[in-house]
Amino acid sequence: FSLLALRCSREKGQHILVGENRLFERPLTELMQIFNQLSVKAEIRKLTDNKSALVIASEGWQLQGNALNVSVKRSSQFASAVLLSAWDLPFKLFIRFDMNQVDQMPSFSYYEMTKSLLVNMGMVIKGSGQEIEVPAHQNMNKKVYLVEPDMSTALSIAALGVVGGNATILNFPVDSLQ
Fold this sequence. Notes:
By secondary structure, this protein is of the alpha+beta class. It is built from 5 helices and 7 strands, in the order αβαβββαβαββα. The protein has helices at residues 2-9, 29-37, 77-84, 108-120, 152-164; strands at residues 13-20, 41-46, 51-58, 68-70, 93-97, 126-128, 131-134. Helix 3 (77-84) packs parallel to helix 4.
């Protein structure tokens, strides 16, 4: 959800993302803080008993200050979503994380997979750890790229195999960031 919301916020206009109320119970404070720093207006509206919407009004990303501060204390998803949305920015984007030990952020391996994917697609990401920089005007240099699957989903299949008889998982990568 945070990826779609951040990607929409790159485009000028009003964007309305509708979903089940359960979706809006997830951590969104960090996302709203990112929007605020990028001069994007966003609010959550309750539509019905079971539906809500995130309403985004944007003129495109306009960074307030010299760095985007991204909280990664509860999840790496916000860092990954910002990076995935950082293609072809008209300005250099400095990102500062709120943890001294970035490798201890929740789901750090997923963040590393995101960075690896983006670098393989042609994005230059300078620095590491608590501060990184994404230079301006970057474009993908590959149109097709094989992405490592979310290996945690294999656990469900393996569990069903244990309970129900057997399961075969093909092409399970031996070398994995996960």
